[in-house]
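=== RUN LOG ===
request id: a7f3
mode: sequence -> structure
chains: 1
length: 174
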Amino acid sequence: MATFTIQVPNDVARRFTALCGDRAEREARLRRLILADVTLAEERRPLTETRGRAQRVMVRLTAEETEAVDQLAASIGFARSAWVAALVRRRLLGRPTFARPDVLSLMAIRSELRRMGLALKQMTASVQAAVAGQQSLESELAAIGRLQRELHDIWAGLGQAFHGNLDYWDPVDG
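=== RESULT ===
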């Protein structure tokens, strides 16, 4: 894993540390910011990037259709052109397109999943130590069961988010 070293003014560093509370949270927040920024940059990369310059596509719509597109775009936090581009990309590439707040939420979820993975490793080590010492495993097994249920719920929620996003961009029947 790469390590970045940056310098910021002392006042900014103090305020950021106060915002985060501790070093672990500060590092987690910086990771989330970097991941969100990279994800957003990748989403904004034009489809034609590998094939040349991005091209402008003009679409003529009636006033009513334009108003409907504007309303749909605004309802999910997109500008009209971004909404139309996302619709085209969904049809061409089959991938989801999320608004920036959703990308940030997904990055936070990813960070939480990483935290839970670390907790699961610690619990596993605790169970292994208990087995070696022939101690009771009741509390460790209960904690692992809770974590498994929590992880299952998060995975299900992520699946629903992606399916919902893809469904949004699919053609409307009727």
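=== NOTES ===
Residues 127 and 133 are 10 Å apart (CA to CA).
The chain has a mean pLDDT of 79.
=== END ===
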